[in-house]
Design a protein that fits this description.
Elements lengths: L2 H7 L1 E4 L7 E4 L1 H5 L1 H14 L7 E5 L2 H13 L2 E5 L9 E8 L2 E8 L8 E9 L3 H12 L3 E11 L4 H9 L3 E7 L1
Parallel strand pairs: 3-4, 3-7, 7-8, 8-9
Antiparallel strand pairs: 1-2, 5-6
Length: 177
């Protein structure tokens, strides 16, 4: 299976969640065992040799790719969740949305200064959520070594935003111009 075959599975949903938006439905990719396996392996393989020790992903769709990538790489997985969803003391990071702000949290102690973190999500649009995950890793003392995504909305320029924030390039299997 090729990246193009994976991209062909993504379904455009016009006017969802609001008029003028074309939602990219990635659920057919995870529905297809061959495509899902290929996507997870491609994401993990791209970052092999970088010393990754933990994958951080934001809920909920980020978990669809982050946890299996961590498993495939043989490293730990750290969930970044909405406020109040994790039971222990947390680091928190606020980030901007097109219509306001949001925040995510990780458990204190989930990462250490020995960790090299890969941030993984299903989709990167403006880069806000990914950058928040990276900042959480840094608050915990870890080093962010990469950002990987199934899909990138390239027309929103997340590569530049992430590069400005971390000095790192992002990797995505599918780019939407």
């Amino acid at each position: 299976m090729s990246y193009q075959s994976i991209e062909d599975l993504v379904i455009d949903i016009p006017d969802y969640p609001k008029a003028g938006v074309i939602f990219k439905d990635i659920t057919p990719v995870v529905d297809d065992p061959e495509a899902f396996k290929e996507a997870v392996e491609a994401l993990g393989d791209h970052f092999k040799g970088m010393g990754v020790t933990k994958v951080v992903s934001a809920e909920a769709r980020g978990f669809l790719f982050g946890a299996p990538v961590a498993y495939q790489m043989g490293v730990g997985f750290v969930p970044a969740r909405k406020p109040g969803k994790l039971p222990r003391e947390c680091f928190s990071e606020e980030y901007a949305l097109e219509y306001g702000t949001n925040s995510i949290e990780i458990h204190k102690g989930a990462l250490t200064s020995d960790d090299k973190v890969l941030v993984v999500d299903d989709l990167v649009a403006t880069g806000g959520t990914a950058i928040a995950c990276g900042k959480l890793a840094q608050k915990a003392g870890a080093e962010v070594v990469g950002f990987g995504f199934l899909m990138e909305l390239a027309f929103l320029k997340p590569k530049q935003t992430i590069k400005d924030a971390f000095g790192l390039d992002l990797f995505s299997l599918i780019q939407v111009d």
